[in-house]
Amino acid sequence: MTVQQPFLTLNSGYKIPQVGLGTFMAPPNEVENAVLTAIDTGYRHIDCAYIYGNECEVGNALKKKFDDGTIKRQDVFITSKLWCDAHRLKDVRPACEKSLRMLGLKYLDLYLVHWPVSFHVKEGRKFSRDDPDALEYEEVPLEETWKGMEALVEAGLVRSIGVSNFNKAQIERILAICKIPPAVNQIEVSVNWLNDKMIEYAHSNGIQITAFSPFGSPGLMTCVFILSPLRFPYLAV
């Protein structure tokens, strides 16, 4: 099935469809059907992340559409993201390979550093999306993480690499040392937050913007990752 849609060209030379389906907060028992419907409707860009907890179901949907001939691998653009507990150089490739296994793919079109912050799970605790208190901040230089990202391109596991939720100063740190510049910065661009200064800065450096939450994502208010300020230790009374 050939679908005509607008594309943007990344600084890596690859093209990215301008409209994509996000899978954040999509329950595993619903996201497979959502991806199937999206592909049938004409979507060719699926945005995923390890921390969303649903990459296996996204992979199931992709396999069904590959198997029934609706699309070929080269017809669809798949993004995933490196989570904050895998920023050390030695951890970047295993994290990417885990997402590839869950998605059932040999390569990703785009892999992003999800957030410019790193942490590890506290001793004796187990990581859970429902237990953010199990996490502890860890100092890992962005430059170290980026070298791991570049190695993914060199290994053929990823075609383009980028960042997400980065500000100007953080991007400039990457640009100062990189062999492969970020192709994308994925940020909020919504009716409440146009983010025009970041868009202008990114474009001036050849970086495309992927915009999330165009309508403000009111569902974020119930997300376990958005903590109530009353849970912060320094506000405890």
UniProtKB/TrEMBL annotation:
<dbReference type="GO" id="GO:0016491">
    <property type="term" value="F:oxidoreductase activity"/>
</dbReference>
<dbReference type="InterPro" id="IPR023210">
    <property type="entry name" value="NADP_OxRdtase_dom"/>
</dbReference>
<feature type="binding site">
    <location>
        <position position="114"/>
    </location>
    <ligand>
        <name>substrate</name>
    </ligand>
</feature>
<feature type="active site" description="Proton donor">
    <location>
        <position position="52"/>
    </location>
</feature>
<dbReference type="InterPro" id="IPR036812">
    <property type="entry name" value="NAD(P)_OxRdtase_dom_sf"/>
</dbReference>
<dbReference type="Pfam" id="PF00248">
    <property type="entry name" value="Aldo_ket_red"/>
</dbReference>
<protein>
    <recommendedName>
        <fullName>NADP-dependent oxidoreductase domain-containing protein</fullName>
    </recommendedName>
</protein>
<feature type="domain" description="NADP-dependent oxidoreductase">
    <location>
        <begin position="26"/>
        <end position="220"/>
    </location>
</feature>
<dbReference type="InterPro" id="IPR020471">
    <property type="entry name" value="AKR"/>
</dbReference>
<dbReference type="InterPro" id="IPR018170">
    <property type="entry name" value="Aldo/ket_reductase_CS"/>
</dbReference>
<feature type="site" description="Lowers pKa of active site Tyr">
    <location>
        <position position="81"/>
    </location>
</feature>
